[in-house]
């Protein structure tokens, strides 16, 4: 009975935490973009990749005491052959085979390149210049709905509007199909399809961009421009807006590293915890399905059939706790019978469905540490 008030307090500690894969490090020593890239790859993972607005806000908030421009891991080599299509909504990947282009599209006008996507029923999808003015289709993640905005804007102005009032421009094959079916007899409209020459240093193909001006489309190229190299910097005194600069200029920069590391050594649970706390932050805690997905990618490279997680059992409270003192609100248990045993900790299987198993904490497995 003495535990009941305490348990009620604890049960209120389940909350949602933003799941982020990367941890950023601000390096004050000015370097060229290439020098910064080498530095980050030697001591960290790479120059900073910024996959969405949440990461961008983290990058900016963590560096508000600095007022300089700083390199991030985005670079461009101009040339029409270097362009790649992307969807505006972060996390939605472009697959060319899913596109229903109008016959003869995509193409470029003789006088300029066409880097943005527009739909008009029943013609289908065409590429046009991003500085044209059209109505546009926004996507709202909260109620999974599309919204036609009749006000005509340039593509980046439309993107900015959708991100401010909804979630983003309509993105992905399913939203494209829905938009085409709903826009019969409607005016030509922007969707979230664009192409540019920008790449991330680590090879990821995140489409997220945060340029300083909605009118600015760095390296929206003429057909004669090819081979010019530019690199992206974040303006720490302008709300984290991005702009392009000569890669040979020197600036401070951001590196990133992943937030978890797999240790390919076999230890019991207590020794694994001691190791992680000594060399890193602690054994990994998983508080959401998103974190489960990220951690399981690490677990796939283990040399043991299971990897230890930072979840252990309290006999006194009859509760499972993470080593960071959070309750086990998110769970991914395998279908196991309760052993009634006190010396238990949790290990994730390194194959199959990556379920969680209750294991005697004296068994020896690889383990994953938080950084």
UniProtKB/TrEMBL annotation:
<dbReference type="InterPro" id="IPR016186">
    <property type="entry name" value="C-type_lectin-like/link_sf"/>
</dbReference>
<protein>
    <recommendedName>
        <fullName>C-type lectin domain-containing protein</fullName>
    </recommendedName>
</protein>
<dbReference type="InterPro" id="IPR001304">
    <property type="entry name" value="C-type_lectin-like"/>
</dbReference>
<keyword id="KW-0732">Signal</keyword>
<feature type="domain" description="C-type lectin">
    <location>
        <begin position="134"/>
        <end position="256"/>
    </location>
</feature>
<feature type="signal peptide">
    <location>
        <begin position="1"/>
        <end position="19"/>
    </location>
</feature>
<feature type="domain" description="C-type lectin">
    <location>
        <begin position="19"/>
        <end position="139"/>
    </location>
</feature>
<dbReference type="InterPro" id="IPR016187">
    <property type="entry name" value="CTDL_fold"/>
</dbReference>
<feature type="domain" description="C-type lectin">
    <location>
        <begin position="260"/>
        <end position="370"/>
    </location>
</feature>
<dbReference type="Pfam" id="PF00059">
    <property type="entry name" value="Lectin_C"/>
</dbReference>
């Amino acid at each position: 009975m003495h535990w009941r008030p305490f348990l009620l307090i604890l049960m209120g500690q389940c909350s949602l935490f933003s799941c982020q894969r990367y941890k950023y490090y601000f390096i004050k020593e000015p370097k060229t973009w290439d020098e910064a890239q080498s530095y980050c790859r030697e001591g960290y993972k790479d120059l900073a990749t910024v996959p969405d607005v949440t990461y961008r806000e983290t990058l900016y908030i963590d560096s508000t005491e600095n007022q300089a421009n700083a390199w991030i891991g985005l670079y461009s080599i101009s040339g029409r052959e270097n362009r790649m299509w992307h969807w505006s909504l972060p996390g939605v990947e472009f697959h060319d085979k899913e596109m229903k282009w109008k016959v003869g599209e995509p193409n470029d006008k003789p006088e300029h390149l066409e880097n943005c996507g527009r739909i008009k029923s029943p013609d289908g999808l065409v590429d046009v210049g991003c500085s044209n003015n059209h109505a546009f289709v926004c996507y709202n993640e909260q109620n999974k709905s599309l919204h036609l905005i009749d006000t005509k804007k340039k593509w980046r102005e439309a993107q900015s509007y959708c991100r401010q009032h909804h979630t983003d421009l309509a993105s992905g094959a399913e939203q494209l199909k829905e938009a085409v079916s709903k826009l019969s007899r409607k005016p030509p409209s922007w969707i979230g399809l664009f192409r540019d020459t920008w790449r991330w240093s680590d090879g990821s193909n995140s489409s997220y961009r945060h340029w300083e001006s909605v009118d600015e489309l760095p390296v929206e190229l003429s057909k004669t421009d090819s081979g010019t190299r530019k690199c992206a910097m974040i303006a720490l005194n302008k709300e984290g807006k991005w702009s392009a600069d000569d890669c040979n200029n020197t600036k401070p920069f951001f590196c990133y590293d992943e937030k978890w590391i797999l240790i390919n050594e076999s230890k019991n649970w207590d020794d694994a915890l001691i190791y992680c706390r000594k060399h890193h932050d602690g054994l990994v805690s998983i508080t959401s399905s998103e974190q489960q997905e990220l951690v399981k990618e690490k677990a796939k490279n283990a040399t043991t059939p299971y990897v230890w997680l930072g979840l252990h059992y309290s006999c006194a409270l009859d509760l499972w706790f993470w080593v960071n003192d959070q309750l086990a609100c998110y769970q991914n248990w395998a279908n196991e019978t309760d052993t009634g045993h006190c010396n238990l900790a949790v290990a994730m299987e390194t194959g199959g469905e990556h379920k969680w198993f209750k294991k005697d904490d004296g068994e020896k497995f690889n383990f994953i540490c938080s950084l």
